[in-house]
Amino acid sequence: MMPPDSLETPRLLLRKPRPDDAALIFQSYGQDAEVTRYLMWRPHTGVRDAQDAVEKFLNGWNSGTQFCWLIFARDTGELVGSIAVRKDQNGINLGYLLARSHWGRGLMSEAVAAVVRWAFEDPSVFRVWAVCDVENPASARVLEKTGFVREGVLGKWSLHPNVSDIPRDCYCYAQTRLN
Ligand SMILES: CC(C)(COP(=O)(O)OP(=O)(O)OC[C@H]1O[C@@H](n2cnc3c(N)ncnc32)[C@H](O)[C@@H]1OP(=O)(O)O)[C@@H](O)C(=O)NCCC(=O)NCCS
């Protein structure tokens, strides 16, 4: 599997990060404690943290193990979020975030749908799955709206350090290949 450097939806451009995106990431969402609340990392305290993140994204692309796209609004060119896939047993795992000022407009559902469509074009992908904190209803709703089925709760699955020092229970959602 080698993902394309970019994907387009009616409102969004998803593209591979570049080193000079770090300042934008920091400004747009990296330092926002509301955005990172249910994520596995603490808010960035400076552009250096965003630079480290971009370096990690590019290492993922280079090693062919995980692929993060930054999400831009096509009309304004603004950075609005990111979405990432990690190769996993029989498919991929999905993670995403959106800058707070862009929540509630259906943008992430649009991005997730495009990535899922792309993923199932690859005959080696049988399963696309994602988890979200049991207290993150907006994320659960995005997954339900884009056709994921809730398979259950993974107990103490993921450490979300902005909420607790104890790993959190997460809903597990998946879509599987139909044939
Ligand atoms: C989760 C997130 C990506 C959603 O993005 P978005 O573009 O606002 O999502 P959409 O507009 O496509 O859909 C959100 C849905 O959740 C619903 N929703 C939002 N907040 C909710 C809440 N507190 N309770 C119940 N439903 C909620 C919205 O009404 C909408 O559903 P609808 O279209 O049926 O009305 C965004 O909130 C985000 O970036 N959060 C922080 C990062 C994060 O938690 N990422 C996911 C980690 S698993």
Structure description:
The protein is an alpha+beta fold. It has a single domain, classed as Aminopeptidase (3-Layer(aba) Sandwich), CATH 3.40.630. It has four helices and eight strands. It has helices at residues 22-30, 47-63, 107-121, 137-145, and strands spanning 6-8, 12-15, 66-73, 79-88, 91-98, 127-133, 149-158, 168-176. An eight-stranded mixed β-sheet has the order 1-2-3-4-5-6-8-7, with helices on both faces. Helix 1 (22-30) crosses helix 2 (47-63). Coenzyme A (COA) is lined by residues 35, 38-39, 96-98, 103-109, 132, 136-139, 141-142, 145.
What's the gist of this structure?
28% of the residues lie in helices and 33% in strands. It is an alpha+beta fold.
Computed over alpha carbons, the radius of gyration is 15 Å
User: What fraction of the residues are assigned to beta strands by DSSP?
Assistant: 25-35%
Number of helices: 4
The structural class is alpha+beta
Overall average pLDDT: 97
* Ligand types: coenzyme A
**CATH homology group:** Gcn5-related N-acetyltransferase (GNAT)
Taken together, the total number of domains comes to 1
The end-to-end distance, rounded to whole angstroms, is 19 Å
Shape: globular
Range of helix content: 25-40%
- Broad CATH class: Alpha Beta
Strand order of the largest sheet: 1-2-3-4-5-6-8-7
Spell out the key features of this protein.
179 residues, alpha+beta, Aminopeptidase, eight-stranded mixed β-sheet, 4 helices, 8 strands, 28% helix, binds coenzyme A
